[in-house]
């Protein structure tokens, strides 16, 4: 009777490591054009200098390759199960980062604001739901970009209360849903959300945007400002 070979973690390394940093994939993010996967922070930093996939060299997008990135939650869970202690290590580093930046769940930094329901299943009725209260929190300002030359249905109004506090895990896609509800627009209405003038992808979390975009403003620049406008199709 043949004995079954025991697999080691290193047997799967080529599937669970990032070719950019050579470490285990952290928040594995796939390029939708070629399906090559990298750490989220690694591929975003790469796209600061190039719009080509670092693995195969294919041009991902002519102007905004970040739009072609998708988080792979299934692969993330597989990696955490394969590599003992990796999840705890990442959670510890994340908590330490937010502690240093004074973005605690019960902190008083930034304007006081009602905590919105920003879960993916949000119905804005205030009933039940997981509000991610145990997550690190961040205060943000949702500012409406001036409507240049737009009229009629294309005009987007500003929020009456533009300062909110929510989980750092909230995504841009959820922020867009929140805006549509608050501005009484159809859920199918297309919005762009920008940070420092750059369009953010729908899967980007507030934590990620703060680390890679907003923190460049300096520690005194708080709360983080996200701007929104009707989506512009660049063709």
TrEMBL record:
Skewed-composition ranges (Basic and acidic residues): 97-112
> Keywords assigned by UniProt?
Metal-binding, Nucleus, Repressor, Transcription, Transcription regulation, Zinc, Zinc-finger
Q: Which Gene3D superfamilies match?
A: Phosphatidylinositol 3-kinase Catalytic Subunit, Chain A, domain 1 (3.10.20.90), Zinc/RING finger domain, C3HC4 (zinc finger) (3.30.40.10)
GO biological process: any one? nervous system development
Listed under GO cellular component are: nucleus
* InterPro entries on file: PcG_RING_finger, RAWUL, Znf_RING, Znf_RING/FYVE/PHD, Znf_RING_CS
List the molecular function annotations (GO) for this entry. zinc ion binding
Chain residue ranges for the region called Disordered? 97-131
Signal peptide extent? none
Q: What is its main location?
A: nucleus
| Localisation per UniProt entry | Nucleus
Q: Name one Pfam family in it.
A: RAWUL
| RING-type domain sequence ranges | 18-56
Q: What does this protein do?
A: Component of Polycomb group (PcG) multiprotein complexes; the complex class is required to maintain the transcriptionally repressive state of some genes.
Assembly and partners are described as: Component of a PRC1-like complex.
Q: What's the protein name?
A: Polycomb group RING finger protein 5-A
Biological source species: Triplophysa rosa
Q: What is the lineage of its organism?
A: Eukaryota, Metazoa, Chordata, Craniata, Vertebrata
